[in-house]
Design brief:
The chain is an alpha+beta fold. It folds into three domains: 163 residues, Golgi alpha-mannosidase II (Immunoglobulin-like, Sandwich), CATH 2.60.40; 322 residues, Glycosidases (TIM Barrel, Alpha-Beta Barrel), CATH 3.20.20; 137 residues, Jelly Rolls (Sandwich). Helices cover 17% and strands 32% of the residues. It is built from ten helices and 36 strands. The strands form seven sheets. Strands 34-33-36-31-30-29-1-32-35 form a nine-stranded mixed beta sheet, covered by helices on one side. Strand 24, helix 9 and strand 25 form a beta-alpha-beta unit. Helix 5 packs across helix 6 and helix 5 packs parallel to helix 7. The radius of gyration is 28 Å and the shape is globular. Bound molecules: alpha-L-arabinofuranose. Alpha-L-arabinofuranose binds next to loops.
């Protein structure tokens, strides 16, 4: 037998070497490793306004006037926040009433001030005082949202705000949706008899014109004083029309990635600039007027309107499992971490256990009942918890062990992810690996996991992106990501999960150089890496097939990569090919142990002659996948692949005998 295989191998390599530069034999005589159904996921962090002014549909910028809330013990130094551990972070929105401007027309006089007397509640200590001393034709205040409000004709917007006056005197407030200079009013309502102590007021507004640079104004027609807080404007059309919901076009981009899980809330943000600045999930649930916002370490203020419940709801809505990252008892390692006292570690563990109870506990538990009160009696699909982000060192090891044991005792089925591969005297189930770098480093990582110890923990590549020397995310970056992902797929018996990072960026405020999905207030587009990810997830095979190259390969200058696998649901062989050469490349594929049906093969291809080309907001389709068909012959095929291309070929075959008629379900939700 061995002798026969040897002869076949010689025949294969010598015959096909003559035909083309790249020759492959796909051996389907037996299945290779199973491909993890969890391999392709999403990483979400509040960075680049991915949530505030992005996925989260709130249209008012600085709705709660709490932008001056900086981490405890920190000081402002110019536009920097300096923590007590002497870490500095830029704060770009220096003006305490950022987003708000006094509106004066026809000689109106007055002003707006930040005030802390008689606060709305203790989570919202600041409010805005509007004084009008002389009314002109219009006097009040306006907010232009996140670089303009995207108002759509005939759509309904829900406005709500809290207001109080100095005494029981009542006044009327006119609320309008209008053009950037206020000269055109698209929708207007008068709210009568506002006054006395804090009360919530709300109404619907329906603009009669579309304007994506619109604004919201609140005006009074008498010389008077009024305090405002939590001024909120939401389109009624959010994803699934959920109140306090998400932007449908951005959610759709995520759904199209077919993610098996969503990791949230980060990222470095989990640790924060100091412990006070860590993600505190309890500040992010319930009525929006009761949430406490914070200045985040990416330079802007976050209301926490997109909070723990909304993240879990998003996962459920897009049919992905939830992966929540908890704080391990210290702030971000790369920002002069502040450590909690050893005797306080239990408090941080309790914070994590309470979150788990909120997500998973019965409705009669303390936190499960809050979940039910917030509209979701059934437990959420929280399947993973990661203890810390990019944390290391002796303290991490010690804290991790305590977190692990207390969480496992209460939630034995939960998968626990560790930042380290090994913890002395501790158990690691899944290790989170991060990788950012140049194209070369990504390309040479194709075989990185081939030699990983299979007896060790599973690997989750929780953050990766070819992000250096690739513009803002060009085709070369995407092809390098593709090579790396193919390296994960062929090793997904051990690398079971992955997620690109960061996910979103607002084109008007980007804190991170290369990201996957860009947007402004009305448009959204995918960088080419987005499409690579989408193609990989749409074409995840159930098991790999041995793909032998008949070419002698020079690993250092390798510009050509190929893997293949089998899709049990459709009985197709899936071949993935990356050509990082500036020239077209020919390749020949032959098959062993499998019959082709002779039906046309489907090819999805992404390519451009210039590897520096990029998609952008106004030119989103420079490099997007295109589908085609081509004929394959029964024994194999030869094909030319364009320069700088990523191609996926699906070929119908007859089911091999070793696949049982009843399929094993290989979807991520069993
Ligand atoms: O993805 C951006 C940042 O990179 C993450 O917040 C952090 O974990 C990593 O260093």
């Amino acid at each position: 037998m061995k002798k026969q295989i040897f002869i076949l191998a010689i025949l294969f390599s010598s015959t096909f070497k003559l035909l083309g530069q790249n020759v492959y034999e796909i051996d389907a005589t037996k299945p290779g490793i199973s491909v993890s159904p969890r391999l392709y996921g999403i990483f979400f962090e509040e960075i680049n306004h991915s949530g505030e002014g992005g996925l989260y549909s709130e249209m008012v910028f600085n709705r709660d006037f709490e932008m001056t809330n900086i981490p405890e013990g920190s000081k402002m130094a110019g536009n920097l926040v300096r923590t007590k551990n002497d870490w500095q972070e830029r704060k770009i929105f220096g003006n305490e009433l950022y987003g708000w401007t006094f509106l004066s027309k026809g000689g109106a006089i007055g002003d707006i001030r930040l005030q802390t007397i008689k606060p709305l509640n203790e989570k919202n200590p600041s409010s805005m005082r509007l004084i009008v001393t002389k009314t002109g034709s219009r006097s009040g205040v306006y907010n232009s949202g996140y670089w303009g409000m995207n108002l759509k004709k005939d759509e309904t917007y829900n406005l709500s705000f809290y207001a109080r006056t100095n005494n029981s005197k009542k006044l009327d407030v006119t609320v309008s949706l209008e053009s950037p200079n206020g000269n055109q009013i698209y929708a207007k309502k008068k709210i009568l008899n506002i006054g006395g102590d804090w009360h919530k007021y709300q109404c619907f507004l329906v603009p009669n014109l579309s304007d994506n640079l619109g604004r919201l104004s609140l005006t009074i027609n008498q010389a008077d004083t009024i305090w405002l807080d939590v001024v909120s404007l939401f389109p009624q059309k959010t994803y699934k029309n959920r109140p306090n919901g998400l932007r449908p076009d951005m959610v759709q981009m995520l759904i199209d990635l077919k993610p098996s899980f969503v990791r949230f809330p980060g990222g470095a943000i989990v640790g924060g600039m100091n412990l006070d600045n860590r993600i505190q999930w309890k500040n992010s649930i319930g009525d929006i007027s009761q949430r406490k916002g914070t200045m985040n370490l990416w330079g802007y203020y976050t209301t926490n309107g997109l909070g723990f419940h909304e993240y879990l709801q998003l996962c459920e809505d897009i049919k992905a499992d939830a992966l929540w990252v908890c704080n391990p008892g210290f702030s971000d390692n790369y920002r002069k971490a502040e450590y909690c006292k050893p005797e306080d570690v239990k408090l941080y563990i309790q914070e994590a256990l309470d979150a788990l109870e909120y997500a998973l506990g019965p409705v009669n538990s303390e936190w499960g009942s809050k979940r039910a009160a917030n509209g979701h009696p059934a437990p959420f699909h929280l399947k993973y918890i990661e203890i810390g982000n990019e944390a290391s060192g002796q303290l991490y090891n010690e804290n991790y062990k305590q977190f692990y044991s207390d969480i496992k005792t209460r939630y034995p089925n939960l998968k626990i992810i560790c930042n380290q591969r090994a913890i002395p005297n501790g158990k690691v189930e899944i290790k989170d690996d991060h990788k950012y770098g140049t194209p070369q480093s990504f390309i040479s990582a194709f075989n990185k996991y081939d030699t990983t110890d299979r007896k060790g923990p599973e690997i989750y590549v929780g953050e990766y992106a070819c992000s250096r020397g690739v513009g803002e995310g060009n085709l070369l970056a995407a092809l390098s990501d593709a090579v790396f992902l193919m390296g994960l797929e062929k090793n997904s018996d051990i690398v079971t999960m992955s997620s690109y990072a960061p996910l979103f960026f607002h084109v008007s405020d980007k804190a991170w150089p290369v990201n996957m999905i860009g947007f402004d207030n009305s448009k959204v587009f995918g960088r080419t890496s987005y499409y690579v990810n989408k193609m990989m997830a749409e074409n995840r095979p159930d098991f790999m097939l041995d793909t032998r190259s008949g070419t002698i390969e020079d690993h250092k200058s390798k510009k050509w990569f190929s893997i293949s696998g089998y899709d049990q649901k459709t009985d197709e062989v899936i071949i993935k090919v990356v050509n990082i050469d500036s020239l077209p490349q020919k390749a020949s594929f032959c098959f062993r142990g499998i019959k082709l049906t002779g039906q046309p093969a489907e090819i999805t291809e992404l390519s451009h002659k210039d590897c520096n080309a990029e998609n952008s907001l106004y030119n989103p389709n420079v490099i997007v996948p295109k589908k085609n068909g081509f004929t394959v012959f029964n024994s194999g095929f030869e094909k030319e692949f364009p320069p700088f291309s990523f191609s996926i070929i699906r070929i119908k075959v007859t089911k091999p005998n070793y696949i049982k008629a009843t399929l094993k379900d290989n979807s991520h939700r069993k």
